[in-house]
């Protein structure tokens, strides 16, 4: 069975988690300190994607559909 993630991608995630635990991992443009494990994993995976490592594609967010309101004619 083929691997979903490459070893290099796992190293990126591992490094991001280590930085998060020490409190030195910063997020994106805001530069705020990351506080959750989920965020740290996401940052590690996105860095691996940027470098072209083997990582599954990001799941697309579902679009919310607007319901049209029917106006009553009086």
Helices and strands in order, then pairings?
Blueprint: H1 7-22, E1 26-27, E2 32-33, H2 37-50
Antiparallel strand pairs: 1-2
Give a written overview of the molecule.
The protein is mainly alpha-helical. It has a domain at 7-50. The chain has 2 helices and 2 strands, in the order αββα. It has helices at 7-22, 37-50; strands at 26-27, 32-33. Strands 1-2 form a two-stranded antiparallel ribbon. A hairpin with a 4-residue loop joins strand 1 (26-27) and strand 2 (32-33). Helix 1 (7-22) crosses helix 2 (37-50). The longest helix is centred in the N-terminal third of the chain and has 16 residues, at 7-22. The protein starts with 6 loop residues before the first helix and ends in a 24-residue tail after the last helix. The mean pLDDT is 87.
The number of distinct β-strands equals 2
Averaged pLDDT, please?
A: 87
Count of DSSP H/I helices: 2
Q: Quaternary arrangement of the chains shown?
A: single chain
Strand order of the largest sheet: 1-2
* Class from secondary-structure proportions: mainly alpha
Strand content: 5-15%
Largest sheet: 2 strands, antiparallel
| Shape field | elongated
From N to C, what is the helix and strand string? HEEH
Radius of gyration over all CA atoms, rounded: 19 Å
Give helix % range. 40-55%
Amino- and carboxy-terminal Cα gap: 65 Å
Low-confidence stretches: none
């Amino acid at each position: 069975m083929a691997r979903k993630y490459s070893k290099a991608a796992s190293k990126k995630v591992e490094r991001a988690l280590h930085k998060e635990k020490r409190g030195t991992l910063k997020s994106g443009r805001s530069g705020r300190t990351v506080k959750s494990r989920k965020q740290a994993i996401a940052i590690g995976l996105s860095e691996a994607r940027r470098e072209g490592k083997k990582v599954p594609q990001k799941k697309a967010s579902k679009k919310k559909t607007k319901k049209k309101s029917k106006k009553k004619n009086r």
